[in-house]
Design goal:
The chain has eight helices and 17 strands. By secondary structure, it is α+β, with helices and mostly antiparallel strands. It folds into two domains: 99 residues, Aminotransferase class 4, branched-chain amino acid transferase, N-terminal domain (D-amino Acid Aminotransferase, Chain A, domain 1, 2-Layer Sandwich), CATH 3.30.470; 157 residues, D-amino Acid Aminotransferase, subunit A, domain 2 (D-amino Acid Aminotransferase, Chain A, domain 2), CATH 3.20.10.10. Strands 7, 8, 9, 10, 11, 12, 13, 14, 15 and 16 form a ten-stranded mixed beta sheet that branches. A seven-stranded antiparallel beta sheet has the order 2-1-6-5-3-4-17. A hairpin with a 4-residue loop joins strand 1 and strand 2. Helix 7 crosses helix 8. The longest helix has 15 residues. The two termini are 24 Å apart.
Length: 276
Amino acid sequence: MIRTWKIARTKLNEVRFDDNSSLDAVTRQLPNGWYSTFRTFDKCSRAIGLSAHLRRLPNADASLLRASLTQALQPFRAAEARVRMTETRRGRFYISIEPLKLLPREIYEQGVRVKTTTLQRRDPRAKATAFIGASGDERERLARENIFEALLVKNGKILEGLTSNFFWIGQIGNLPYLATAQRGILLGVTRTMVIRAARERGLEVRFSPLRLDQLSLAKEAFITSSSRGVVPVVQIDDARVGQGSPGKATRMLMSAYEEYALKRVETIAARDKIKY
């Protein structure tokens, strides 16, 4: 069940919608603005990269949002939750929360299929809610075809995923390197952590998008997001990636990311308590 609250200085007001089937459905019923989505840890008391998620909202009062989120999460503390925080263009803030549903383990063990699309964000650096509506047809197509994700392509280059960032593993001689686009993409919170974790493990990082006419350069590939972590990609359109299964470097980065991120998990509660 998804619950949504409008944030005010004096109280949280719960809001109900006609379509409460998903976070995206709820977001489409709100005025346009900006958003960020993440999952909780430790029975809804902590989140990875929370400060970075809040900075995506242009006029965020971090203390107020943390206090509001702490209160809104109370009914979900028996397990974990997936959270979306939204700021409308008129400066109003909303919190939408649903129980966290983890991906099946076989997704990480076997990898996923993805397809490319020419769909583009108007402003790639901003996580705008308008893109959720604009990409509705694409999301429905993915569901019908049982495709995990769509990759946004511009000028023949894979930039990012519809709801994720995209990475690929290249190789020179026997030395692998990690590559990802740097321009024309949303700089995801998980993306940043994966890059840092890779460098800590001694893996070279290159900022270079994968071209569609050079898919064979990718020995491995994966996508990243705050709710799903690192998800191996084994097929792009009709092309198999590498051996068609999660590779050694990807599995190493899955472990490295989890280790890196969990050391940097943030307490959600605000230091300065706000009374409602």
